[in-house]
Amino acid sequence: MTTPATAAPADSTDPEWTGIRTLGHANRFAVWDSEFRYDGRIRVPMGVKISTVRYSYTGNGQAGMNAVEVKRGRSGVDQEFEVIDLTFLADSDLLTFTLRGDLNVDADPRPAYSRRYQIRVDVTLDNGDVRTANPEIEVLAGAWARTDPEKVGRPFVRLPYDNNWGGTPNSQAGFGYVSDNGRIPGDKFIIDLVNLRQGEQDVPGNNSDHVYYQLVHEDGTPSHFTPTPQLQKAEGHRDAGTGRKVTLPAIDLRQLGDKPGYYRFLVWPQAANPDGSPSYLSWDPAKAEDAFQLGSVYYRYTAGRRQGQFAVSPGGPVTLVRGGEPRYAGVELQAVEDGAVPPQRVRVTLPEGKGLRLGDRLIVGVVQNSEWKEVGSYKGTLSPDGRTLTFDSVDLALVGKGSKSGALVEVTASTAAPLGDTSLGFQVGDHTSASSLIRVTEI
User: Fold this and answer.
1) Which of 45, 135, 284, 359 could form an S-S bond across to 410 if both were Cys, CB 3.0 to 4.6 Å?
2) Which of 99, 42, 96, 95 is nearest to 70 (CA)?
3) Closest by Cα among 279, 75, 76 to 185
4) Which DSSP symbol is given to 256?
């Protein structure tokens, strides 16, 4: 999660700086599938993290539904969000996240064929700032009668949720899916085609047997997998059963030569008239605004020369006396593969409310002949909230598979520090670990 990038000046017109850049969302579905899927990106000051995410459950403009942060790649089915990428820039951090949860927007829109809602998303940062977006969704009618206005009953595709369509670990894992190697398993992108007019005699658009689909990068260019919208046969049906779904085959974006980044899975349902001619009720694959977004994948592979992999684990325990002398706490580093380990950015974060204070330097050392030897010292930059120190271009002193080193910071406990156990948070490259166990005592 440490893709290097160049700095850019703050731009008051760029939603990444002032709000949330919407990468994609479940933009259109029937009242049967009242669910929220949203992918966004924000740029924040160095070290600032997402504190809470809330969204509007009913589309009333009030972000009242709380989403809980879960581990990247979990692909759960509750009200949750994941930070799926963290890019360190020279002057800021770029956070990409995926959000999922339930909605209550299933009121029948008839006599109109659909109803539109704006779903407010509020992202609160741990520096107190609040970022907001208002993606629009279109909710289609889930019933049709001959007496309804002409566009009611347009074909649609289901928005998979929970476990109703199968899949691993669930049916909705194809939205906000993360792939570090470019591979997308064959159960992630699900197409379930519904036509409420299916088989009805002498009415326009009464037969659906295919859709068009395409995988499109965030910059608007299509994946090599789908250079143009591709035809996919699917059995149209008018009931809510999920047994007639089709799934795309496994996809390897890296093998195809696709660029890293965010991709939307777009689908255009089709319908034909009784005479077999295309129906005006179909959704036009030549129009991006006609697409249903049913999924997304974040592909963050970065090619380059082979680099050694390493692991990070807590260092040995440390005892701090309230108001006493500083001690050193940190992590142990170990190379788990051959190959050069490039310099890494290291971040050390204080636990909140524990009365600890950090020194301003990171010490890297190795053990030689049973003695600790310092091999590097780095001065850090303190975050605006005073809790995180960032050290750039740190040489971890790992020289081959099995080699070990340590990274330490000076820490003291105030006279009012709570007694008991705590630890610092370390992030070394894209690896995270607690520090040494820190035990705060009276004497």
Assistant:
1) 359
2) 99
3) 75
4) H
